[in-house]
Design goal:
The chain has four domains: 13-142, Rossmann fold (3-Layer(aba) Sandwich), CATH 3.40.50.20; 164-235, Dna Ligase, domain 1; 239-367, D-amino Acid Aminotransferase, Chain A, domain 1; 401-469, no CATH class. The chain has 16 helices and 15 strands. The chain is an alpha+beta fold. The chain has helices spanning 13-35, 68-80, 95-102, 122-130, 139-146, 148-157, 181-187, 216-227, 301-317, 357-360, 369-387, 393-400, 402-418, 423-435, 438-449, 460-469; strands at residues 39-45, 85-91, 106-110, 134-135, 165-168, 194-198, 208-210, 231-235, 241-247, 250-253, 256-259, 264-271, 293-295, 324-330, 336-342. The two termini are 35 Å apart. The protein has a five-stranded antiparallel beta sheet with strand order 13-12-9-14-15.
Length: 472
């Protein structure tokens, strides 16, 4: 078949771009309608010592942190971009009651868990059981990403480069590299140096550089005692250290949504190591300040292109649908390896000279912190609406119900009044009006605002029904 003359040939790129533009414009208006009604809960790590936090206190396999301060940053940003109903909630035994009382529609996970051996997956698993959609990774991916040895096994299978490694648990006795067949298989005649670290951890805590094999048993025992979990032994790479973030294709710039053709990789940074650092020191000990990173320049295209490719490869190979940050390091020949994928990267809003690695890289993409937060929520909602709409009927109803449309437009009208006639705001209101039905708009808005004098000649039930029926 000659596709050049086939009347059924796919549409041109310009036609597809135009359709995509219309689709993202429609989705932008749906997000704006949700702002007045969607009830959001930002969930941070609960404290097991709090009354009613847990039934019985147990061990933590990863160092605990509440992340409440960052949850507050996220909540404030959600309010600044227009969402009116945002609450903070701890990830603990009281979560279900809090969600029920607040009638939460969507949650945002900013928790590493409370206690146990796979705490990063607990909140996601509870929300799945409750039927509450959320911004964050599903329980399986949260576990895989948070457990470095499982992530590495999957990465090797997918052809993603990661340094040679093996694991050991102290319940099997002391670690003896000369007798350990897994160690011999992974490292052969390599004598060191090595990295010893927990399989599940945060902020480079309990991560050590070990110069040679003879010192491995003692350090493995120390990390094992600190975490009561598997210990990861990895080849030390002497090259440059990098990180890059990646999320889904829906991105906000200046609060306007865009749809990218692929997952969105951004915040490509090189970590700057001090003279006393062989690895990046924990942010708990050295906060992320501007002297601790630099953007990877486009002139350094060899690294930049590989970083973007690796980020997208991980996002697709692991079937991810939420933000991660990849940590990467080069070997002595400049080859890049993925060290780990952080499923809950720090989202601290820059303040007082301290930032997060992801926020630090936003300017290179023409974004600010509020754009990032809007991007992550909008991308997750778009994924749910297009892939799992039957599971989120309560959100679909918020978008398409006559009352939701009326309230959303009334809220938009109020914003337009406060804007004092700014052309961009007025234009957005006009776009929403055209997307609905201009002839019916005044009746809907009048009823939403309680204006009994407007639209008397029309039947409000009929008008609202027509508007609702016009929605695709």
């Amino acid at each position: 078949m000659n596709f050049s003359t086939d009347p059924q040939r796919s549409r041109s790129d310009s036609e597809m771009r135009a359709d995509s533009h219309r689709d993202i414009g429609r989705f932008q208006r749906q997000i704006e309608r949700l702002q007045a009604r969607l009830r959001l809960a930002v969930i941070f790590g609960g404290n097991k010592s709090t009354p009613d936090g847990v039934i019985y206190e147990s061990t933590n396999s990863r160092p605990w942190k509440s992340y409440e301060a960052v949850a507050e940053d996220i909540a404030r940003a959600l309010k600044r971009v227009g969402f009116r109903h945002v609450e903070l909630m701890p990830d603990d035994m009281t979560l279900s009651d809090r969600l029920r009382r607040a009638k939460t529609h969507v949650a945002w996970l900013n928790s590493g868990g409370v206690q146990g051996y796979n705490p990063a997956a607990h909140a996601a698993a509870m929300l799945e059981m409750f039927g509450v959609p959320y911004v964050g990774h599903d329980p399986l991916n949260a576990t895989v990403l948070d457990n470095k040895h499982i992530f590495k096994r999957e990465a090797i299978y997918a052809g993603i480069p990661t340094p040679p490694h093996c694991t050991w648990h102290m319940m099997h006795g002391d670690f003896r590299p000369e007798r350990n067949t897994h160690f011999q298989h992974a490292f052969g005649k390599y004598e060191g140096p090595f990295i010893v670290k927990p399989v599940s951890g945060r902020a480079s805590l309990h991560v050590h550089v070990v110069p040679d094999r003879t010192m491995l048993p003692g350090m493995v025992a120390d990390v094992g005692r600190a975490t009561d979990n598997l210990v990861l032994i990895e080849r030390y790479l002497p090259g440059r250290e990098f990180c890059i973030a990646v999320t889904g294709p829906i991105v906000a710039r200046n609060r306007r949504l865009e749809r990218h053709p692929d997952s969105f990789a951004f915040a490509a940074l090189e970590r700057i190591l001090g003279k006393d650092e062989q690895i990046f020191t924990s942010m708990d000990e050295r906060p992320i300040t501007k002297d601790r990173f630099r953007s990877v320049s486009p002139t350094d295209s060899n690294y930049l292109e590989r970083m973007h490719r690796l980020a997208r490869d991980v996002f697709h190979e692991f079937s991810l649908s939420s933000l991660i940050r990849l940590d990467l390091r080069a070997d002595e020949n400049g080859n890049l390896f993925v060290l780990e994928a952080n499923p809950k990267p720090d989202l601290k809003q820059p303040a007082g000279g301290v930032t997060s690695l992801i926020s630090a890289g936003l300017a290179e993409s023409g974004m600010d912190y509020d754009d990032l937060i809007l991007s992550l929520l909008a991308d997750r909602l778009e994924f749910l609406l297009t892939r799992r709409s039957e599971s989120i009927r309560h959100i679909v109803d918020l978008i398409h119900s006559p009352r939701a449309i009326a309230l959303g437009l009334a809220y938009a009208q109020a914003i337009a009044r406060r804007s004092r006639g700014r052309d961009d705001v007025v234009g957005r209101i006009n776009d929403m009006a055209a997307d609905l039905n201009v002839r019916k708009l005044s009746v809907i808005m009048s009823h939403a605002e309680g204006d009994s004098t407007a639209g008397k000649s029309a039947d409000p039930n009929e008008d609202v029904g027509v508007v609702a029926s016009n929605r695709k």
